[in-house]
Amino acid sequence: GALLVNERIDREELCGALSPCSLSFEIVVENPLELYSGTVEIQDINDNDPVFPSSQARLEISESVAAGARFPLESAQDPDVGINSLQTYQLSANPNFALDVQTRVDGSKYAELVLQKELDREEQKELNLVLTALDGGSPPRSAHVQIHIDVIDANDNAPVFNQSTYKASVRENTPSGTLVARIGAYDLDDGPNGDIVYSFSSHTPAKVRELFALDSATGELRVKGQLDYEETKLYEIYLQAKDKGAVPGVAHCKVLVEVVDVNDNAPEVTVTSVYSPVPEDAAPGTVVALLSVTDLDSHDNGLVSDVNDNAPKVSQDSYDVYVPENNMPGIPILNVSATDPDLGRNAHLSYTLLQGDTTFGHLFSINRENGTLYLLTPLDHEDQVEFSMMVQVQDSGFPPLATNVSVSVFVTDLNDNAPVVLYPHPNTTATYADVVAPGTPAGHMVTKVVAVDADAGYNAWISYTLLQATDPSLFSVGLHSGEVITARQLREDDAPEHTLVILLKDHGEPVLSTSATVSISVAEMVKEVLTDLTDVAPANDPRGHVTFYLILAVILVSAAFFITMLSVGIFKCYKWRQSKELYNSSRSTTYRTPGPLHHIDAVRGGFTPPSFYHQVYLTTDSRQSDLLCKKPFTSSPLGSRQGTIRNGEPGLYHQIVGTTSRLPTPAE
Hints:
Elements: H1 11-15, E1 21-29, E2 34-42, E3 56-62, E4 70-72, E5 86-91, E6 97-103, E7 109-115, E8 126-135, E9 142-152, E10 160-161, E11 165-171, E12 179-182, E13 185-186, E14 196-200, H2 206-211, E15 212-214, E16 220-223, E17 234-243, E18 250-260, E19 268-273, E20 289-294, E21 313-314, E22 318-324, E23 331-335, E24 338-339, E25 349-354, H3 360-363, E26 364-366, E27 372-375, E28 386-395, E29 402-412, E30 420-423, E31 434-436, E32 445-448, E33 450-452, E34 463-469, E35 475-477, E36 483-486, E37 497-505, E38 513-522, H4 526-536, H5 543-588, H6 599-604, E39 614-619, E40 654-659
């Protein structure tokens, strides 16, 4: 039953960087039947030295680089694990640089040079340093690399990355050439000094360079090799951007690439037969075989899989957010909360802002991972009071399910606008005074100050206060109306000219104010005031022409009105005299019966068509009666009198009959 080593064991060859390193086996014991599982852990010994990729490293550093700048160095590799792996770095003594040892996510170490004292090319053109890598063995093993630093002049602007750390995720078994991330940097210099070349940092492991490719011109990081989640779940890639100046400026960033597990491993079933063949008289319950099932995939890909049959659930369907105007940019204003009862990727949620309005992209942003809504720029209540948008919460299942949430952002008002005076106009160059007559009693409104405030509510409520006056006892100002009224009766000994300075304040916090100046003249007649204003008004007052045209227009309108009224009077007088003459003529005429009708001659004369005939009956006082006209007919010119209407047809033949009897009614 002894377990022996069959050949020399090399832990680095069997397990590489995996720790702990173990080998599993199974032993079957018969009579009685038993199955034993065992594991042999291969312990590491410090049998490997750290190794640098090259024996010498060369750096070019400008003398204008400020203290505190960092320069990544090539990392040494040690295939041992645990305490026997690479533990630290040491730097030879020098007055300018210090060494800072950093730890990656996987526990490996890398070193960076930190400039403590600024370089001076005129004092020293180059420096030679020695970097030593040490593991934790006993005794420790080490490796050395010579660092040659050239101190040169460079352009004064180095490239700057948009962000120091980029995050991306890619599915394992992704085909070569798939875009992983796009890094970006900018350089304020012009020409070659502003052209940027992207590359891997010097301490990027060789394994990473084999799996990923970086476009030096565009900064696109793409898959180059075959990714395997079961081998490595996270890659920490260090990249740099360097311009093309004589002394190139360099910027560094980090890309964290998460490998997403794909269900690319089928479950493995191991069957161990015990009885072969099985006797026909075997009793029920007899063990026939032992089975074990394993799956190399992780999480849900290694279990009974979940179905994405649940959409994300939000805590509420809509949100109302109130934000004061003039806010600080970049502040969080809301956190959209959602859950998904599914498992694994089916429950992984991402938040997206659905931008119905293209301008929202410049105002709002949402964190895809946690649903925090940020306000990017200051808002103005006077510009827009409300913003409405939709936030979509989507899981990572296939197909993905999503839920939309309505978000309304209301901009609350702050007192950021002072009152604005509309009257009297504050920017006028001429002086126009309001006029009040001597002896005016108290309580008389002389003028009114008109102002507006662009704010809302209490912030726009304006109060008026008399700040300064020629005679403070003579005038007062309405607190909320702005009306300037006399506080007492004007006396003969009061000054002829008064200047009032009125303070206008709103009721916001803090209070904003402005002032208005009102000029008031005390005069008996407007002519006196106009004389005074002529003395102080500018020589070329553009409103003088307007006054002239207004006076001319009033004169012309008055003349036209007088002529019209005179014409109407003459016409009325003429009509009255004509009717009077007709009345006198009718009273002198003797009564007589109507003679024969001669409408046929009129028809033949072409005055009216033969189918029209009107017969009119008038009394001796017919000027005070209505004219009754018969409708046209065709049967007979002497037809029935029925159908008479109260209107007349010009140009038709009428026969006038004088009679003392009443007018016939329409029915007659």
